[in-house]
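Please fill in the sequence for the structure shown.

STRUCTURE ENCODING:
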């Protein structure tokens, strides 16, 4: 029995991985790209750091597991290989290739703003 949008499993697939039946371009990748973005008003690195600190201090109070928030913070501050290991070891499911939307194993949603993931392209120099 299936839902209206389900499709039968193709012959030759085991059915253990739901992404096996997807075309290659629709399969989720394990490469997490840092988003490129432009702030409305150019900000300095110190302003960006303050905004990031404010996010990490307040966001966990709106739901989700504190350990997942800590793992996401560590992954945002790490290089790509370390971030990948942190995400996999914490059981985080990355729904968007740029890590802006993630889920934990229980289904709780974690939305990350682009400013915690990367610097804007119009970053101004501190004076």
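FILLED IN BY: designer on duty
SEQUENCE:
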């Amino acid at each position: 029995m299936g839902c209206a949008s389900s499709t039968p499993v193709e012959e030759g697939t085991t059915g253990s991985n739901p992404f096996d039946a997807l075309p290659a371009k629709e399969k989720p990748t394990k490469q997490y790209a840092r988003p490129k973005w432009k702030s409305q008003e150019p900000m300095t690195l110190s302003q960006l750091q303050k905004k990031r600190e404010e996010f990490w201090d307040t966001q966990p109070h709106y739901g989700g597991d504190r350990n997942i928030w800590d793992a996401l913070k560590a992954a945002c501050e790490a290089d790509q290989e370390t971030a990948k290991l942190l995400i996999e070891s914490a059981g985080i499911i990355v729904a968007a290739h740029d890590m802006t939307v993630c889920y934990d194993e229980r289904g709780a949603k974690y939305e990350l703003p682009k400013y915690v993931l990367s610097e804007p392209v119009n970053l101004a120099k501190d004076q």
